[in-house]
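User: I would dearly like some help making sense of a protein record. I have put the entry right below:
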Amino acid sequence: MENYSESERWMKDARDCFNHAQRCFNEGYWRGAVQNAQLAIELSVKAVIALFEEQDWTHSPDGQLNRIIEDKKEEIKTMFGYQFLNLLSNVIEDIRVSAPWHGLSVYGKEKDDGSGWIPVVDLCTEDIAKELVTRAQRTITVVEEFLRGIK
């Protein structure tokens, strides 16, 4: 595949972000874990997209990945089996869940009543960090399997 080296580049950064997310989580630094897990998921998804086309400039490339999967569904089933499509659906869900955290973990969130902002450190809890680190691990595992199968 002619874009495989580009995918490898995206995955190298994704793995680094994931490793950093794990370190942050282990040290109780929830904001760092959330930020890096979100980036690990985003960069992993862009590694898949890079095989087929240029990535959209977004933190939530779920629509682009979904379209590619739909276009290549039969090829993916032939190469990996039907069950793998379910794994790729999980990856789409992971990017949808994690994408908003790119901004939330940097800027915080406006309070529902408009009376001010919720600080990032109050939004990035241990539970959120754990969920995103778990999703990042799953996404990286699926994407790496996909890339090995495509190569």
In short: The helical segments are 4-26, 30-50, 62-71, 73-80, 82-98, 100-107, 120-123, 126-150.
